[in-house]
Amino acid sequence: MIATAIPATCFSRSRMGILLLFMLLHSFLCAQIVTIGTGDLISQHLPIEPLARYSYTQQLFPATDIPLSGSISHIGFKYQISSHMFFEGCKAWKIYLGEICADSLSQWIPVDQLSLVFDSWLSADMFGGGLPGSGWLVIPLQQSFHYSGEQNLVLAVDENSSGSGSSDDDFFCWTHSNSSAIYYQSLSQN
């Protein structure tokens, strides 16, 4: 079985970051698309682990990598999905955003210090390249988040579907210079 490749429960720190796209609306009421990171690394467990039934990740994006302040209204992740199992098995997401002064993630940021900005199921039309396919998963946030631009941005993603995808389903990441991500995954425990 594919699922046996994942330990029942994992916790790890990572120097990887996802390719993140988000839209900022600043004082001129103009939408600005900001892309953070470039790369083609896969199998980094970010923003979710498609092989796990449940996963939770937190990632840190330095303020120096984000050129604007303003309201974040959408978040996007570059994906490569090969299976038909992914959509049904990995579509219940909660997304949180927050700001912190810390330059790395050595421990979990308590969820009550973050703002819940999305709590729903993904829809097929959010996947710009279709499913299966490759492209950008762009998620319109239910609650926009005001980013001050003065501190580092924290992104947390909690995937709560009881199914899973396949080993060929993944999101693109890049290497970052500090411990910028931590993750938890499990086949049985949410």
Structure description:
There is one protein chain. This protein has 190 residues and is mainly β. The protein has one domain (11-186). The chain is 3% helix and 48% strand. The protein has one helix at 85-89, and strands at 9-14, 16-18, 20-25, 31-36, 54-61, 70-81, 92-100, 115-121, 133-147, 152-159, 170-171, 173-175, 181-186. The strands form three sheets. The chain has a six-stranded antiparallel beta sheet with strand order 1-13-5-10-7-8, with no helix packed on it. Strand 3 (20-25) and strand 4 form a beta hairpin. The radius of gyration is 15 Å and the shape is globular. It starts with 8 loop residues before the first strand and ends with a strand.
Write the layout of secondary structure elements.
Elements: E1 9-14, E2 16-18, E3 20-25, E4 31-36, E5 54-61, E6 70-81, H1 85-89, E7 92-100, E8 115-121, E9 133-147, E10 152-159, E11 170-171, E12 173-175, E13 181-186
Antiparallel strand pairs: 1-13, 2-12, 3-4, 3-6, 5-10, 5-13, 6-9, 6-11, 7-8, 7-10
The total of helices stands at 1
Helix content: under 10%
Largest sheet: 6 strands, antiparallel
Q: What is the count of structural domains?
A: 1
Morphology: globular
Structural class label: mainly beta
Query: Which strand order spans the largest sheet, edge to edge or round the barrel?
Result: 1-13-5-10-7-8
Sequence of secondary-structure elements: EEEEEEHEEEEEEE
Strand fraction band? over 45%
Mean pLDDT: 79
N→C terminal distance: 21 Å
Number of strands: 13
Radius of gyration over C-alpha positions, nearest whole angstrom: 15 Å
**Low-confidence runs (pLDDT<50, min 5 residues)?**
1-19
